[in-house]
Amino acid sequence: MEDYVIDIEAENKDIRKRYRALLRACKPTLQRGDKQEIRKAFDLALESHKDMRRKSGEPYIYHPIAVAQIAAEEIGLGTTSIVCALLHDVVEDTSMTLVEIEAMFGKKVARIIDGLTKISGIFDPNSSMQAENFRKMLLTLADDVRVILIKLADRLHNMRTMEFMARHKQLKIASETSYLYAPLAHRLGLYAIKSELEDLSMKYTDPETYKFIARKLNEKKAERERFVEEFIKPVEVILEEQGIKAEVFGRPKSIYSIWNKMRKKSIPFEEVYDLFAIRIVIDTITEREKTECWKVYSIITDLYRPNPDRLRDWVSSPKGNGYESLHTTVMGPKGQWVEVQIRTKRMNEIAEKGFAAHWKYKESNSDSGLDQWIEKVRQMLSSPEQNAMDFVDDFKMNLFSDEIFIFTPKGSLVQLPNGATALDFAFEIHSDIGATCIGAKVNHKLVPLSHPLQNGDQVEIITSNKQTPKEDWLNFVITAKAKSKIRSSLKEEKRRIAEDGKEILERKLKSLKITYNTDNINKIANYFKYPSSQDLFYNVAKGVIDVKNLREYAASEKGPEQHHPQFNSHITGLVEKINKKEVDTILIGDDMQKIDYTLAPCCNPIPGDDIFGFLTVNDGIKIHRTSCPNSSKLMANYGYRILKAKWSSSQANVAFLTGLRIIGIDDVGLVNKITNVISSEFNVNIRSLSIVSNEGIFDGDIMVFVNNTEQLDKLMENLKNINGITSVTRYEANT
What we know:
Helix content is 47%, strand content 15%. By secondary structure, it is α+β, with helices and mostly antiparallel strands. The longest helix has 32 residues, at 480-511.
């Protein structure tokens, strides 16, 4: 750390100021004796962290105070949570123990802090530390959801203050955030926090796009504000005439959601019409909420023409996380679509503060979808066989899903994620029904197990005692419960088959005069590239490996030594330097060595792109762009396999493959103009060209070889200048 002068007196003054601001934020929930508890926790945190500093050089205590402030102000949590937020790093970073915390603050506080403390010690090298931490954090959800809420506050403050960290750490933390924490905030109804986490992640994983959209939004700010004012004025007049007390305002969309729309629809920034939404928050009593929301909807649609396909009614059927609101899209005064959100003050607080606000209003809504969701999480966690990585992937899949409502034959309602199949429904009813399911009747019509369900379907499951779960079921179920039960059943089946295989292998080795022992079994498994002896036994039982294969193994043992490297989570010593015949273009690792690598086809990195290396199990090092669609998953789950990588300056004459998507109005000679710009003007080689023309619209995918991002940007600019071309975008996957 650099030397700098520390003004202790000024810092102490600042700490006191921050502590007073925290107390002001806690004021709405404070009860008798709470202030003393918060003070006790603050004093302990101050003492415990007195010699510690953050990467920025600031006193470490700033962090726990900020986390407590977010928990109080932005999530609306009470005193117990504030105490835990202040103490969340004490056990991990100091000699203080959980037993001492329990003696001072009680069992509940100690339990929450235990949930917040990371796992230390040995962990499975094929799993990820972060996946285990995440699973442990969710285990505490069964007892106390505040663990996750404080963890989200902690993550949000870390993301807000990440500029002083090393670049590779920024990438790893940002990827974990977008992959796990943002979806979790979404599922718990914390929409403001979810949006901020996504934006901050993007700021570090794809800084160029982030800055570009932020600049564009800033340029159009005054124009947007004028439009919002013009849109709102007549609405406010009618609301006042009708005696409806409501606040009407424009809310800008997040940078991440705008970028997501640009990417999904392959459109430039200028074509994203909904850069903001109009929100109407009604002040009314609980009994009149529904009536008032629909009354306001009627007023809006009288003033502006609605898009009939864009009405979303979460007032009659709230989302699983408790979110309630009416959304409609209407044609604004200047011929552009505008999203309007209509909700009451209570609904707005639940949307902003999620779970904490949900509990505040719980008396009026006891059978909440959020309670059902937490119950599902408990069920998922009760499956001991599931490996942490599978768990995180399944959990992630269920976080962002919108719900559909399915009816049983007797008319009971079952909530499932969008895209769920008949088999998901069977497992949702009961594990045994799922395991023996052979088909289903949807709305009295016979359908296969993989049939995707639609909102409002009535489903009857057909079972047979002879049925058992099949491997291909995993290809079409989407709920975590179904996946977990199928995997568990298949593992048991595989274990039984492997037992038979073990005996068969023992006999075969005896006939080949090879000693049956652990060392030889591991060698054979390694030779056939199986990750475990169980896989070897299983494949022997299935007949994949026979005596002929085993003879080949025996011959290889006698001949020159064979090396089949096993994967090890420790990167040191795993990669070898090689003399590449072609020019070395990427330097890898902390000491920037020239190591063998391949470029990932999912994002086709080219010089100028921000990149990282990923150590795969079988294919060596793969180079990905940091903005690659797969990067957040890789970094979040396999942080220990990520390697630093940067382009060297010696790739001037090396060509790299990348993809361009070109959309425009079909015209005679358009293809000729495009190929002319690419080949003649830029002297760039085209590898493949795929063009679809449909009713006058031209849509082309072109794979080209370029030297770097600078050349690519110029090429894209020149293609955009061709008359009739409306958009040129670089696409990430080599499809």
